[in-house]
């Protein structure tokens, strides 16, 4: 079968929306001093969009690596993902510790951390070891890393034409998510596996990949892409605020998006898509660094005018993201590519979270 063609501009827009939702959520919460239901939802929704996007793009990445025909593909997958995620995450933890940035949106008291806390955050296993997140947004990275354990298996299933295999994978994912949600008070230690509750989000990206391989032609015009994402967000808002930990709500929200991705024609080149591509390129840095930029504006510059504080946030975030990508992210990506002689365009490299 020929290579799967991803709607890359649509996915850039999706990733840009995801990171901007997280940024808006935390900015709003910082401004008003507490987390509203709306802010909580758009932050969670942004993270879930990330999970759908990432799993879809990683399916295509393994395909471009000629998996499973090319030997060593699983090793290459894990090494390259580690080099993509860990360097910047570790650097941000160090910066947070040095600057004593509080972990939450409202910038309260900065706690003291043990060596175990720091080691767990460096390794991105703090959910498994029950250590605190040194920076609040770090909670998503362990979930993504844990999902990587089964993504190669998901890829092997999704590349098959059989509907039965994909259906069984989805049913298994729903069962796992239900166990992860309902079993917290019944199964000892299952509370450590928070990733189980988000399995439907990742599987929605796998479903999108499976559908893309079988969709001959998109059915809907490209201009509908943003309204579709907005409608999905709006429809999911009320059930998500009533049952914020419901895997069924997550499955419906992310599943609708996974089904929609193959049905919408890829956007044409425009200022919007170019802007979305820039935001998507720096999205990992935006995700990890925006809390530090907000702290700089609201705490370090607290005696300055709102305009000065706003400029300080924008400038510090822009410079921080540029430096993070130029000196940390991109070298890590290039190292992974050089280790395995990867020749695909650098723009195809997926980011976290």
Task: Describe the fold and architecture.
With 353 residues, the protein is mainly alpha-helical. Helix content is 67%, strand content 0%. The protein has helices at residues 8-32, 37-64, 73-99, 115-123, 126-129, 140-147, 151-158, 163-182, 199-212, 225-242, 247-260, 271-281, 283-300, 306-339. Helix 1 runs antiparallel to helix 2, helix 3 packs antiparallel against helix 14 and helix 9 runs parallel beside helix 11. The mean pLDDT is 94.
Described by its quaternary structure, the protein is: single chain
The tally of strands reads 0
Radius of gyration: 20 Å
Mean pLDDT: 94
Distance between the termini: 30 Å
Low-confidence stretches: none
Q: Give the CA-based shape.
A: globular
Q: Tell me the major beta sheet.
A: none
**Order of secondary-structure elements:** HHHHHHHHHHHHHH
What proportion of the residues form beta strands (DSSP E)?
under 5%
Question: Tally the helices: what do you get?
Answer: 14
Features:
14 helices, mainly alpha, 353 residues
Summarize this entry quickly.
This protein is mostly helical and about 350 residues long. It is about 65% helix and about 0% strand. The longest helix is centred in the C-terminal third of the chain and has 34 residues.
Explain the layout of strands and helices:
Layout: H1 8-32, H2 37-64, H3 73-99, H4 115-123, H5 126-129, H6 140-147, H7 151-158, H8 163-182, H9 199-212, H10 225-242, H11 247-260, H12 271-281, H13 283-300, H14 306-339
Helix pairs in contact: 1-2, 1-12, 1-13, 2-7, 2-9, 2-10, 3-4, 3-13, 3-14, 8-9, 9-11, 10-11, 13-14
């Amino acid at each position: 079968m020929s290579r799967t063609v991803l709607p890359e501009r649509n996915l850039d827009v999706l990733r840009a929306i995801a990171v901007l939702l997280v940024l808006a959520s935390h900015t709003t919460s910082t401004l008003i001093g507490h987390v509203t239901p709306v802010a909580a939802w758009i932050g969670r929704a942004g993270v879930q969009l990330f999970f759908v996007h990432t799993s879809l793009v990683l399916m295509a990445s393994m395909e471009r690596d000629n998996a499973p025909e090319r030997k060593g593909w699983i090793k290459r997958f894990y090494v390259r993902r580690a080099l993509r995620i860990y360097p910047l995450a570790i650097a941000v933890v160090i910066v947070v510790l040095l600057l004593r940035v509080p972990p939450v949106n409202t910038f309260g008291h900065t706690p003291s951390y043990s060596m175990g806390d720091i080691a767990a955050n460096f390794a991105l296993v703090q959910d498994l070891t029950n250590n605190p997140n040194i920076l609040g947004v770090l909670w998503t990275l362990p979930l993504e890393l844990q999902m990587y354990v089964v993504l190669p298996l998901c890829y092997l299933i999704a590349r098959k034409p059989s509907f039965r295999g994909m259906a069984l994978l989805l049913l298994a994912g729903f069962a796992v998510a239900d166990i992860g949600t309902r079993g917290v008070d019944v199964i000892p230690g299952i509370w450590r596996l928070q990733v189980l509750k988000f399995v439907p989000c990742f599987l929605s990206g796998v479903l999108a990949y499976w559908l893309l391989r079988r969709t001959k032609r998109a059915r809907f015009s490209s201009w509908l892409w943003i309204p579709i994402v907005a409608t999905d967000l709006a429809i999911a808002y009320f059930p998500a605020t009533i049952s914020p930990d419901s895997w069924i709500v997550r499955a419906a929200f992310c599943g609708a998006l996974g089904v929609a991705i193959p049905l919408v024609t890829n956007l044409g080149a425009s200022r919007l898509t170019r802007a979305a591509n820039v935001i998507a390129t720096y999205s990992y840095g935006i995700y990890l660094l925006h809390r530090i930029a907000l702290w700089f504006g609201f705490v370090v510059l607290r005696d300055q005018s709102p305009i000065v504080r706003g400029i300080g946030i924008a400038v510090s975030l822009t410079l921080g993201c540029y430096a993070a990508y130029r000196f940390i992210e991109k070298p890590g990506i290039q190292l992974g590519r050089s280790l395995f002689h990867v020749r695909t365009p650098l723009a195809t490299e997926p980011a976290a979270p």
